[in-house]
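FYI - complex with S-adenosyl-L-homocysteine, inputs then prediction.
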Amino acid sequence: MRRTLSAAAALLFVLIGIGVFIALRPSEPPRGSAEQKSFTAQRLEMVQTQIAARGVENAAVLAAMRTVLRHEFVPRDRIGSAYSDRPLPIGFGQTISQPFVVALMTELAQVRPGDKVLEIGTGSGYQAAVLAELTDQVYSVEIVPQLASSVTGRLSRLGYTSVRVRDADGYFGWKERAPFDAIVVTAAPDHVPPPLIGQLAEGGRMVIPVGPPGSYQTLWRIRKKGGKVVSENVTDVIFVPLVRRER
Ligand code: SAH
């Protein structure tokens, strides 16, 4: 009997200990802690070694890439890889693009303060946040409703309150807000959606990967000049496909 009681007391002691440990454990690293500093160091290194070293030159784009907290846009279990040189899964079969690809597309879009920008494929919201560092008029369309709803909270928590997110099929753009000075498409269709060409302003730039799903696609920059559409083949990329919503 006494042995049972002391075993129970020992168990109680252990459980209280675990409870106290869980209660006192900090859930977030405090600002300015070693972990926060190391994210900053990782971000500066990412810009230097992955982005500037590969030829992205625009100072405002480099500054935006140094500013946006990429680790806030990846799932918690991927936080250790937030600044690595690759895309990462964000759930629903989707990915946050490789940092270099985000920087390259942003540079190609030539976003100036006050420009109205449309992104297709909000995903984690990371590309939208980078665009929001350059202009206060960012519109983004996401087809997965759960991603569209979680991203709005994340963007406003991080201070990107001007970004407007809509849950819709981005093939059709955002007609009510058109025309756009820049359109950045972060999922690959097999042809350039005509509604997006229609919503590009005179002098506007569209950056879009086009090609078959599951293989290399071509990244195009398309410009509207004097009513004409001029396309430039930039490089090969791999994006998730632009899917279509049944209508
Ligand atoms: N720009 C994102 C990454 C994009 S991944 C980021 O910075 O995290 C591609 C995204 O495009 C996915 O979230 C996918 O759901 C979305 N998508 C695919 N087809 C779409 C469509 N027709 N309209 C809008 N979004 C689409």
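The first strand starts at residue 88 and ends at 91. DSSP finds seven helices and nine strands in the chain.
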